[in-house]
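WARN no homologs supplied; continuing
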Amino acid sequence: MAKVAFLGLGVMGSPMAGHLAAKGHAVTVYNRTTAKSEAWVAANGGASALTPREAAAGNAIVFACVGNDDDLRQVVLGEDGAFAGMAPGSVFVDHTTASAEVARELAGTADAGGLRFVDAPVSGGQAGAEAGTLTVMCGGDPATYAEVEPAILAYARASRLMGPSGSGQLTKMVNQIAIAGVVQGLSEAIHFAKRAELDVEAVLDVISKGAAGSWQMENRGKTMNAEHFDFGFAVEWMRKDLGILLTEGRRNGARLPVTALVDQFYAEVEAMGGRRWDTSSLIARLER
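OK structure emitted
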C-alpha cells in the first residue's frame, strides 16, 4: 500500500480517492473548497491539506482529477503547486481530461525536476467512478506506469499504457469521438421509432441483441425514451472534451465532420437549458 495524495474532489475525484482509501492506501486530499476535503476525510479517513504542495509532500504518488488545462496547471505549477512539494522520483498521475499538449508540457517539467508524470484520463463517468469500474488510458514511461498501475486499479476495471506522454489524452479523444457519433445515432433512432408509433422499449430490447447494440443503448436507451437526463456525464463537460479534440484534429489534419456537427447539436442543448444534463440529452433537440 502506498502513501498517496489526491487533488480534486469533484464527482469523479471524490469516489476515486475513496476507493484508494478503502483499498488501504494512506490518502491525503486537497480541494479548492476546503469543506469538501474535510467532508471527505470525515467519511473516508486520511488527511486533508490546504494547498497542493502540502498534499503532495511525502507521498509516492500524487493523483489529480480537475477541470481543464488551466485548472491542472494551477494545482501542479507555482510555489504552492504539487510539483513544488513532491520528492525526487515520485509520480504525478493526471486523470483530468485535458489536451495532449499540456500532458507533454507537464511531463517535460516533471522530468526536468526529477519527477515522473503519467497522463491518465478515464472513461466511465460518475457511475464508473463510484463503482470502481473506470477505464483508464495512460501515456508515459513503461516502468513508471508499471509502478502506479496497481494503485490505479483500486478504482478501475481496466487500465492500459497507450504510448509516450500525451497518448492517454489522445486515446480519450478517440473515445469521445466514438461516443458522440453513437449517441447522436441512438437519438435519431429513438426519435424515428416514436414517430413510427412503435413500442420503443421493445424496439430497443430486440435491436440491442444485434449489430446495433452498444453501451449507450443498454444504459441510456430507456432514459432517453423517457427524457430523463438529470444524471451522468454533463453536456458542458462533453463540449469541453469535444473542443479539445477538435482543436487537436485541426492540428493533426484529422477530418471530423460528424463530431463537429454533434458539438453544434450539444450547443443547442445547452441553449435549451441542458448544460448539466447527461450527454444522452441530444435527443431533446429532436423531441422538444
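The chain is about 55% helix and 15% strand.
OK
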